[in-house]
Amino acid sequence: AQKITQTQPGMFVQEKEAVTLDCTYDTSDPSYGLFWYKQPSSGEMIFLIYQGSYDQQNATEGRYSLNFQKARKSANLVISASQLGDSAMYFCAMSGWGKLQFGAGTQVVVTP
Amino acid sequence: EAQVTQNPRYLITVTGKKLTVTCSQNMNHEYMSWYRQDPGLGLRQIYYSMNVEVTDKGDVPEGYKVSRKEKRNFPLILESPSPNQTSLYFCASSYGTGENTEAFFGQGTRLTVV
How far off is chain A from B97, nearest CA to CA, in Å? Predict the structure, then answer.
């Protein structure tokens, strides 16, 4: 069975600072994908970044990077230079066997 | 524009009154699924469909039905809604089920059952 764990229910971060959101996972599948989604207060789910289990390099997308440590089964999201618009709920998810398994989410509030 | 469209966005209903939440995608995706989102639990899969006429249960299927008569549509049916089905619902689609398959989400349907 797959499991995704996000241990930080919420966090505050100052504008322009970097923030790391933790995500650990457990799976017996040799091949899987890890995703991060952002959910602003308006409710929609916005895809941020993807990391494949066989990818050698950490994924990056603009200010988002994924710190993938396969041996530790972690896939932390790093947001550099936080902006007020980054205030949202962030979900880590893992794909496998035809579905996405989501973590409980981390609420991020960016303060001026 | 590629999108997944859910309707309605907001719905308040009474216990026991059958309702349907529609979901339609214009990307010719084979795979579609329904999730519910509850505080502290993230998104949990209700049902999914690999293709037309092929559906299967997810993690929390009790109290829900789905159908996939056409590739683009995947409605969620609550035959007899109860207050514990008050939640935020998302429909999602993807072109496949591989590890690198990005899911595209609808805007969400906020359902309240009183």
Answer: 4
Residue A89: name the closest of A53, A49, A55, A45 by CA: A45
CA distance B11 to A5: 31
Which chain B residue shows the shortest CA-CA distance from A101? B44
**Paired sense of beta strands B104-105 and B87-94, if any:** antiparallel
Is residue A93 within 8 A of residue A39, CB to CB? The reply is: no
What is the per-residue pLDDT across A59-100, written as a single tens digit (0 to 9) for each? Answer: 999 999 999 999 999 999 999 999 999 999 999 999 876 678
In whole angstroms, give the CA distance from residue B69 to residue B3.
19
Angstrom distance (rounded) from CA B3 to CA B17:
29
Cβ atoms of A75 and B74 closer than 8 Å: no
Cα–Cα distance, B46 to B64 (Å, whole number) = 8
Contact B102 A100 (CB under 8 A): no
A88 CB-side CA count, 13 A: 20
In this predicted model, what pLDDT tens digit does every residue of A21-57 receive, in sequence order?
Answer: 999 999 888 888 999 999 999 999 999 999 998 888 9
**H or E stretch covering A21:** strand A19-21
List the structure tokens of B96. Answer: 């496949």
- The residue in chain B having the minimum alpha-carbon distance to the alpha carbon of residue A92 is B42
CB-neighbour burial class of residue A91 (10 A; exposed 0-12, middle 13-18, buried 19+): buried
